[in-house]
Design a protein that fits this description.
single chain; 168 residues; mainly alpha; 54% helix
Length: 168
């Protein structure tokens, strides 16, 4: 499969408060919809001062700034500039890599299980070369000159598995 454009390394995400405009918008709309007091000076019972429609643009400037900052942050996220097809290609490649790695992991698991079962069978049959298991040698030829490094025979396959884990 040809390599598609991979997204750049992920940047840190902006804080969630940057995208949380609903409380500010709700507050602004509440002030806009409040009926003005009879004298025009008394604040409402909720201590929210009403706002006239002519002052709306000024009052909404903080919300507008927050939206502009959020847009800028979203545009800087990795992959935003990629077309949908490119994003789908990258996703397909990542899914394929994930499947491949799961296969490698399973193969390693099977090989380890097979090795442990073989070691357990050798110990159970009394054919294990404990020096080879301990020093990593093959065919009974020790990697060290000292033959006192051989472990005593184990009594069960479970002991052999424990011995295997101690040596790896």
């Amino acid at each position: 499969m040809p390599a598609a454009t991979t997204p750049p390394t992920p940047n840190t995400l902006p804080p969630p408060q940057l995208f949380d405009i609903l409380p500010s918008l709700h507050s602004l709309l509440s002030r806009l919809l409040l009926p003005p007091s009879a004298d025009g000076l008394t604040p409402s019972l909720d201590s929210i001062t009403p706002i006239s429609p002519k002052d709306l643009a000024t009052a909404a400037s903080s919300i507008t700034n927050k939206i502009q900052k959020a847009r800028t942050a979203v545009r800087q996220l990795p992959g935003v500039d990629m077309a949908i097809e490119e994003q789908q290609d990258v996703i397909a490649e990542l899914e394929e890599e994930s499947r491949r790695l799961r296969g490698v992991e399973e193969a390693i698991r099977k090989a380890a299980r097979k090795r442990l079962e073989g070691a357990a069978r050798e110990v159970g049959a009394g054919n294990a070369d404990y020096g080879a298991m301990e020093t990593g040698s093959r065919n009974g030829v020790s990697n060290t000159d000292d033959d006192d490094t051989h472990s005593p025979p184990t009594s069960s396959p479970i002991d052999a598995i424990g011995l295997f884990y101690q040596q790896t």
